[in-house]
């Protein structure tokens, strides 16, 4: 009788020891590690929508995977801690989608001025999964055009789009060129506005969301998101996740 009673008691004691060890180890982990374990993860679908051969040479699948690594490294707060995580999901190169009926593809080389609302309407109307993945953040590589610079322009855009975000990155800005285009435009995709820094020189340290203002250049955009910006990102992160899940 005593032997039968001791076995459950021993099992209970062992379970308590395991629980105590688990709690001890969890308490010993840095807060940043614990935070990263529960961090929101967003899939990214890439689509190359420019017909420019030079863009095709740069926008390889290998480079597009690297773009995700860049985001995970630089989409951070002021202490260089990641705010959310990103994950490569898929990529469609130009030859795979150039026959798409989606008007959005034609924007990859348009000479018309950027129209945020009109472009969003075309994006939302696209039902070709090669171009627009409704369950992911869509990252488009295009060739920006302006009246002053022609196709030498390299302007990028990011839009939250009612929690269905997308980015337009000029092919010349891939691989994290000057002023951190990936994290800056992803900031817009998560609801952030520009931060204006008067007189900032091109080599001055500025917030990720800095933009040209008066005599300034916007600076390097190498300072992470501040507390208010992180709060906005996390607020929209939940809404974006819910929207993307509901489209699966």
Detailed description of the structure:
It is built from eight helices and seven strands, in the order ααβααβααβββαββα. The chain has 248 residues and is an alpha/beta fold. It has a single domain, classed as 3-Layer(aba) Sandwich (Collagenase (Catalytic Domain)).
**Highest CATH level, the class:** Alpha Beta
Write down how many β-strands occur, each being a DSSP E stretch of 2 or more residues: 7
Oligomer: single chain
Instruction: State mean pLDDT (0 to 100 scale).
Output: 90
CATH topology: Collagenase (Catalytic Domain)
- The end-to-end distance, rounded to whole angstroms, is 57 Å
Helix/strand/pairing category? alpha/beta
How many separate domains? 1
Q: Which overall shape is indicated by the principal axes computed on the Cα atoms? A: globular
The main β sheet shows up as: 5 strands, mixed
**Assigned CATH architecture:** 3-Layer(aba) Sandwich
Helix content class = 25-40%
Q: Count the helices. How many? A: 8
Full CATH superfamily name: Collagenase (Catalytic Domain)
Low-confidence stretches: 29-36
Strand coverage percent:
5-15%
Element-by-element helix/strand order: HHEHHEHHEEEHEEH
List keywords for this structure.
248 residues, single chain, Collagenase (Catalytic Domain), 39% helix, alpha/beta, globular
Task: Give a topology summary.
Layout: H1 2-28, H2 31-37, E1 41-48, H3 53-58, H4 61-74, E2 85-92, H5 94-97, H6 116-125, E3 137-142, E4 157-159, E5 166-170, H7 181-189, E6 195-196, E7 210-211, H8 227-245
Parallel strand pairs: 1-2, 1-3, 3-5, 6-7
Antiparallel strand pairs: 4-5
């Amino acid at each position: 009788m005593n032997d039968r009673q001791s076995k459950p008691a021993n099992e209970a004691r062992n379970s308590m020891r395991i629980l105590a060890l688990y709690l001890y180890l969890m308490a010993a982990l840095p807060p940043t590690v614990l935070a990263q374990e529960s961090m929101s993860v967003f899939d990214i679908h890439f689509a190359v929508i420019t017909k420019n051969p030079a863009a095709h040479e740069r926008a390889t699948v290998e480079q597009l995977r690297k773009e995700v690594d860049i985001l995970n490294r630089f989409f951070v707060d002021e202490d260089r801690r990641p705010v959310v995580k990103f994950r490569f999901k898929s990529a469609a190169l130009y030859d795979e989608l150039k026959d798409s009926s989606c008007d959005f593809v034609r924007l990859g080389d348009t000479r018309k001025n950027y129209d945020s609302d009109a472009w969003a309407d075309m994006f939302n109307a696209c039902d070709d999964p090669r171009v627009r993945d409704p369950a992911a953040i869509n990252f488009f590589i295009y060739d920006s055009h302006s009246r002053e610079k022609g196709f030498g322009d390299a302007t990028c855009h990011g839009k939250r789009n009612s929690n269905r975000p997308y980015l337009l990155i000029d092919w010349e800005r891939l691989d994290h060129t000057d002023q951190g285009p990936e994290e800056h435009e992803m900031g817009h995709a998560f609801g952030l506005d520009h931060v204006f820094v008067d007189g900032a020189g091109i080599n001055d340290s500025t917030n990720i969301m800095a933009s040209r203002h008066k005599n300034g250049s916007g600076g390097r955009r190498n300072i992470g998101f501040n507390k208010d910006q992180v709060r906005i990102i996390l607020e929209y992160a939940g809404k974006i996740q819910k929207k993307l899940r509901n489209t699966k």
